[in-house]
Amino acid sequence: MEHALRQCVLALRIGERLGLSDDDRAVLYYVSLIVWVGCHIDAYEQAKWFGDDLALKAGFRLVDPVGVRSAGQMVRQIGAGRHGLDRAGVAVRFLAGGMRVVGVMMHNHSYASSQLTRDLGLSPHVRDAVLQTFERWDGKGAPDGAKGEEITVTARVVNFADVLEVFHRAGGVEAAVDVARQRSGTQFDPMLVELAASQAPPLFADLDQAATWEAVISAEPAPGPPLTGAQLDASLQAVGDFTDLKSPYTLGHTRAVADLATTAAATSLAGPAGEVTHVRRAALLHDLGRLGVSNAIWDKPGPLSAAEIERVRLHPYLTERMLASAPALAGLGATAALHHERVDGSGYPRGLRADAARYLREEVRAARQDPESAEAVLEAAGHPVWRRRAWPAGLTTREVEVLRLLARGWPNRQIAERLVIARKTVDNHVEHIYTKIGVSNRARASLFAVRHGLMSPAEDGEFTSRPGSAPGRSSWHAPHRFPWPGQRQHRRGPSRGVHHDHRHRSPARVERAHRRRNANARHAAGRRRRVDGRDACPAGDMAEPIPRPHLRSRAPALRAHLAERRR
């Protein structure tokens, strides 16, 4: 966040010396603050190939993104944090398919940031500048390869200020000017380089003191009207959706938590309207601090080390600190930071205690949550309602099932095993999905799924396991804790360990199946009565069977006849 604030101040100073209008400087202002939000849309892929995604981003600006040094840095980073054959295997898989994923990362970053500008209701000029932030003066950038004057001046300034801020923070004014001159005519506009070289002292003067939250807010060139309550809710929901993109295992999590918390506060706990609104907004921001922890930890397939656990325990604190600078959001941050606290003091980050003694069903008896809150959340969770619905972009129900697993990082082979369909069928579904929603890779598909509310647990129907986990072990996906009527779970085959159920059956089909089974049971009971010459009666005074001599005499012959037919 500090980098974005410092870069924003530096970009505004450059824009002022260029004589840009207030409207153009307003574009600089918003682009500087929002453009790097999209950099974690493919943090899952970054950590998969390069280890710590935060370390990868930190070193990204230190070398020219195009050239031998950049390629060498990328190669050295492959499989970071792994050793021996494990790292060699990552390198082989990267050469087989990972290079294609890396090739579209910049496209994904600009795409995600531009989608966020639309969700926040910012002007089209801001969106256009965001899309061109990764373009280069020499035309070797992304996503469109625009060059020279084809790139908007606002995008050129933001790109320039971004790199200069990093080098100024590391080595002072001289280091910033040196890198500007080294990349003049390649990454940077030569005119901007000359401006920075000739006016470096005033550009970088007191940058640390000027890059505070209050200073940046007051520096907005053309302040707009305050957000309405509905606009603020929509903006916070967009932020929550982008937070979930940090990992495929959290897609839709923020919306689901907000819906549960809102329903519980509004109905079961009967909270005032102001408190209900506060609860929902805090829920939308509760995981913002996850962005400060590497995906090498969040997506690690094995147990975490003690140091990694400590980093995980920091994310509620990071949420609070990120929001503390804005007075209007500080209260929400204070509430959001408590979401991992437990009533017995065993939570984090502060280990706060409360007077309640229970937690959601299993933990109610373990004295870990307030019982009323637990019951309210369980009531709000409820059984999913089965209904036919129209999916976005014309997707079919099966395509939505494939999209959910695809967004969570499942390879096509495991999707086929999970859904008990052919691998080729999955390939066709993925191709149709990409065509219908207008994307070309998993990262963008996951953004589509989150923005259209397809990844919440209520929509998902179940929490799926991580791809690559051994089927049949403790890591396999857990069924929904509230099974539907008629739901069955079984294994397919003695060793495959493929778990599935019959949730795709409509309520009408389930009811018809129940009636057929009941009718068959009654028919079988009637045949037994006729064969044995007795009626089944309720226990009590009528518990003795009613004799039927005219049927009993035929029973041995009938039994013999049935036995002969069976032979």
Give a written overview of the molecule.
By secondary structure, the chain is an all-alpha fold. It contains 29 helices and 2 strands. The chain has a two-stranded antiparallel ribbon. About 14% of the residues have low confidence.
C-alpha termini separation? 81 Å
The 3D shape can be described as globular
The stretches of 5 or more residues where confidence is low (pLDDT under 50) are 354-359, 383-387, 461-504, 528-553
Helix share, percent:
55-70%
How many structural domains can be distinguished in the coordinates?
3
Average pLDDT: 78
Protein traits:
567 residues; mainly alpha; Hypothetical protein af1432; Arc Repressor Mutant, subunit A; 3 domains; two-stranded antiparallel ribbon; 29 helices; 2 strands; 58% helix; globular
Task: Summarize, please.
Helices cover 58% and strands 1% of the residues.
